[in-house]
Amino acid sequence: xxxxxxxxxxxxxxxxxxxxxxxLVYLQAAGDDLPGDIIVGDRSLARFHQRLVENAATLxxxxxxxxxxxxxxxxxxxxxxxxxxxxxQPKFLLPVREQGTVTHVLVKFTDSLSSASGRRWADLLxxxxxxxxxxxxxxxxxxxxxxxxxxxxxxxxxxxFDRIGAHGRRGVTSLRALHDAYPGPDTNQWPAAVxxxxxxxxxxxxxxxxxxxxxxxxQLIGNSDMHFGNLSFWFDGGLPLSLAxxxxxxxxxxxxxxxxxxxxPEFAPPLPVPAEREIWLEASSxxxxxxxxxxxxxxxxxxxxxxxxxAADKVERMRGLVx
Length: 323
Prior knowledge:
Blueprint (H helix, E strand, L loop, with lengths): L1 H5 L13 H11 L11 H13 L4 E2 L3 H15 L12 E8 L2 E9 L6 H22 L8 E5 L2 E7 L3 E2 L3 E2 L2 E3 H7 L8 H10 L5 H16 L11 E3 L42 H19 L6 H21 L1
Parallel strand pairs: 1-2
Antiparallel strand pairs: 2-3, 3-5, 4-5, 6-7, 8-9
Helix pairs in contact: 5-9, 7-8, 8-9, 9-10
């Protein structure tokens, strides 16, 4: 959405090049439903209040299969897709009402499942659901996503952890924001960046260990998209900051690329150095479980199932070398 609004707001086309003033212009124009608990500007607050009064945007859960394809088509045709700056997968946001309870969700979706890219993204969304289930079982994720095939697309619905009930919000901040505010090593690796935050007293030992686990798990499932926007911390006003639940955890190494809708790159995760051995062994057991689950998932294509079995075998062999 940031890119789509750039021309309308007379901003640079790439949000990563925005100044602080540019960001404030955007936040006032479209900042009523962004991550976290802050709403900037009277116009954004007025839009938020209007939605509360009308309550029209809340979707009855039984209408998912008809409304999700419509919302995906509208988002794709208008360019108003609520994706992150660095996000690969289009998505939209909305509240869903089920059995009297309102849950704010983020919904990713594929293009047509009859296309090669749509089929591959469908495999990746199924894999993301499995990864989040593994992380949830080990206390690193707040909820397990829901998969839905409808209107010739696949949808992955995930409850938003920065929303509480129908109207509540909770503050979050990304590793990118913290790394920019408290510069440390010149790195794009989560563990190296959070070691600096730990040394400054901004995060505690538990958060540091969880980040290392998530990073090792990500490497072992082929998540090549562990940028600093894909790791967040609760921002509730106190220190140390607690780690927010995991999200966007999937085998992005196999995501479609220009000219190749179904790439088959070599899967070659690194072995750990001695200091990482304990955490790596724990994460690798999760990764084997993940790949085994993906291999037998009925929502996964036969081709991706073969890939998953091969990846599981490789991680098992690596564990034998390290154990």
